[in-house]
Write a structure and sequence with these properties.
Elements (H helix, E strand, L loop, with lengths): L14 H12 L5 E8 L9 E2 L3 H9 L5 H9 L5 H7 L7 E4 L5 E2 L6 E6 H6 L1 H24 L4 E4 L8 H13 L4 E2 L2 H7 L9 H5 L4 H11 L4 E4 L5 H17 L4 E6 L4 H14 L6 E5 L4 H9 L6 E4 L1 H4 L9 E8 L2 E2 L14 E7 L5 E8 L8 E2 L2 E5 L2 E2 L6 H14 L2 H4 L9 E3 L1 H20 L3
Parallel strand pairs: 6-7, 6-11, 8-9, 9-10, 10-11, 15-19
Antiparallel strand pairs: 1-5, 1-12, 2-4, 3-5, 3-17, 12-13, 14-15, 14-16, 17-18
């Protein structure tokens, strides 16, 4: 049996979720709890996040249940009572989830989603929620930065071979397409998500032929309507001259050479010289595609220095978010049985209670500021960001298509002021706290400290 046959989403969790759940059961703690998922701080050079992963999470929550095999495994560990494993057989998610839809832009301290459910159900979801939302939000946010740095040029995801696993590669293809990439090299992502797939050839293809020209002509014969040639295997400029000859032969047969790809060397200098070769040769429409260790920083630098590039194939550094490979993301209990809950640990403060985020826009339709407040507060003129997506365990809408989410992000991006889009932002977006939330936080904090001081042991 391979590992995929044993995949059980209900076991995608940390052991302490189960130990806490059994203790809740023994203590007859079944009250309603609210857990809030949020990112505490921005990674370096970040000023926004792109919400992603919700659709996958909703599928997992909808189908959340413990199979006989999963219960048998937990029993085999010897860590849990028979009462608890019998209880797990009946567990279904019966609560409510409110969330920021995929493709929307959000900021630190704002809840990405809140789960309200019997405390055991909410607790058992913690690791799964963090894992799914962090990865896809991380990748979508990184991809959005690359799209911005590309200044309108097309981008394709080439990250699969070095992502942190097969599933991560799929999510990178989906998240980058959501954020504005035109497609991916990942064929499975094309099948599953409908992401347009792109590819050219590898250096091994070129070197398998006796000479470079033979490889170019062979590829053109195989794909006469979609020929892109990799020209840097031996000498990039000589490769470009050979590609120009291929373009002439294809043109005589009524076929275009779509493009050439550069994967190494001084990309600024080479791209400009390759462009000149095709312009002087009478083929101005041949696209120049560049790959090789690209991210938003290198894209911005290349274009600032005058590189002639039509499409970027962005791989590893986007697919693993190399400069910021994780978020300081947390899923914290903020209310239990109507009682506000907070954490007072240094540097790990939480905001109490069920919450909503309202967004305000300026006269030009650009994002102006957000207000974090209690769910029950009325905020005139603000747009609420969190929507109810599950209620009483039931999905409240049909699954959203990736194209719809991609369109939503494009609309959001237009509303984000340029100062926050920057590769090197110097300002952070204002997220204000309502007076009611601040007061409840103050009262809860004082009460909590007083109780700890006065507690008799």
């Amino acid at each position: 049996m391979n590992v995929w046959d044993q995949y059980a989403p209900e076991l995608v969790t940390d052991l302490y979720e189960f130990t806490m759940a059994e203790s809740y059961l023994k203590e007859n703690m079944s009250g309603e709890a609210t857990f809030s998922l949020f990112i505490r701080a921005y990674p370096h050079h970040r000023a926004y996040f792109v919400s992603a992963g919700l659709e996958h999470l909703l599928e997992l929550i909808r189908d959340f249940r413990f199979s006989e095999a999963s219960v048998d495994y937990l029993a085999s560990t010897g860590k849990f009572s028979r009462d608890f494993t019998d209880y797990l057989k009946k567990v279904r998610f019966t609560g409510t989830v409110r969330a920021i839809p995929e493709g929307r832009i959000f900021f630190t301290q704002e809840p990405i989603l809140e789960v309200t459910a019997p405390i055991i159900e909410g607790q058992l979801l913690e690791t799964l929620v963090i894992n799914v939302i962090q990865l896809e939000t991380l990748l979508a946010s990184k991809a959005a930065r690359c799209v911005h740095a590309a200044r309108g040029r097309a981008l394709v995801d080439f990250s699969l071979r070095r992502t942190h696993g097969v599933d991560a590669g799929l999510k990178a293809a989906r998240a980058s397409y959501l954020a504005g990439f035109v497609g991916s090299s990942n064929v499975l992502a094309g099948k599953i998500y409908g992401v347009p797939v792109f590819g050219t050839m590898a250096h091994s293809y070129v070197t398998s032929f006796k000479n470079e020209m033979d490889s170019f002509l062979a590829f053109a014969r195989t794909y006469p309507d979609d020929t892109v040639l990799l020209i840097d295997t031996y000498d990039t400029l000589r490769g470009a001259e050979k590609a120009l000859e291929v373009a002439r032969r294809m043109s005589a047969e009524g076929k275009p050479l779509v493009g050439v790809r550069l994967d190494s060397g001084d990309l600024v200098d080479l791209s400009r010289k390759v462009r000149k070769i095709f312009l002087d040769g009478g083929f101005p429409d041949v696209k120049i595609i560049v790959s090789g260790s690209l991210d938003e920083y290198s894209l911005e630098k290349l274009l600032e220095e005058g590189a002639e590039i039509d499409l970027f194939a962005v791989g590893t550094r986007m697919g693993v978010s190399s400069d910021a490979p994780y978020f300081d993301i947390a899923y914290k209990l903020v209310e239990y049985e109507g009682r506000p809950i907070l954490k007072l640990s240094s540097g790990k403060k939480t905001w109490v209670g069920k919450k909503q985020v309202y967004r305000f826009y300026d006269e030009d339709g650009k994002m102006k500021e957000d207000l974090l407040c209690l769910l029950e507060e009325a905020v005139p003129g603000g747009e609420p960001l969190l929507e109810t997506v599950i209620k009483d365990g039931e999905l409240q809408r049909s699954p959203e298509s990736l194209e719809r989410i991609r369109e939503r992000f494009a609309g959001e991006w237009e509303k984000l002021p340029h100062i926050y889009r920057s590769t090197y932002p110097v300002e952070t977006y204002p997220v204000k706290i309502s007076a009611d939330l601040s007061e409840l936080e103050r009262q809860t904090s004082e009460a909590r400290r007083r109780e700890e001081i006065e507690k008799e042991w």
